[in-house]
Amino acid sequence: MSDKINLKEMEQQANRLLTKDGLMELLMGAILFVTSSSFAGTPIFTPFLGLYVIFLKNIIEGFRKKFTYPRIGYLKLPDEDSKKIGVGILTFMGAIMLALAVVIYLIYGRISGDLVYKWIPLLIGLIFFGGLQYNYSKSGDKVNLVYITIAVGAGLIFSL
């Protein structure tokens, strides 16, 4: 008997199970706390912003080894090429900034600082679109599509 195994679906299920524990949300909350504390006038946390970026992968893996893997088990997924992902992120960011600048120019006939600031919420919504679309492709979790709609819709509403 030959059963078809969908490896992509298995990888998405493993990814969903791995991200279900809320660890990423906890660490992102810590990042937001440190960032907001840095900009709110207490610069004591400012040096740690760079350390977060550098050591985030190791911090997440340490938390997973201590809390997540004992609960759900460990599955070695194929490693991603981080250079390729980084170039993809920068390309996406550049493309949406350029597209937004072109849209601003086509609508208003000029590009000025006040117009750029007016449309920054849409830019942030589109940045969330990129991250959530990547997360959807990795996990297949349809809640990401809802988040995409909310992020882009809210960005558009706040920009108008």
Write structural notes for this entry.
There is one protein chain. With 160 residues, the protein is mainly α. It has 2 domains: 7-72, no CATH class; 82-159, no CATH class. The chain has 7 helices and no strands. The protein has helices at 7-19, 23-39, 47-72, 82-108, 113-118, 120-139, 143-159. The longest helix is centred in the middle third of the chain and has 27 residues, at 82-108. The protein is globular and about 55 Å long. The N and C termini lie far apart (59 Å). The mean pLDDT is 82.
Helix content: over 70%
Sheet of most strands: none
Count of distinct structural domains:
2
Measured by DSSP, the beta-strand proportion falls in under 5%
User: Care to count the β-strands?
Assistant: 0
Q: Averaged pLDDT, please?
A: 82
Elements, N to C (H/E): HHHHHHH
Describe how the helices and strands are arranged:
Layout: H1 7-19, H2 23-39, H3 47-72, H4 82-108, H5 113-118, H6 120-139, H7 143-159
Name its key features.
mainly alpha; 160 residues
Short description:
With 160 residues, this protein is an all-alpha fold. It has helices spanning 7-19, 23-39, 47-72, 82-108, 113-118, 120-139, 143-159.
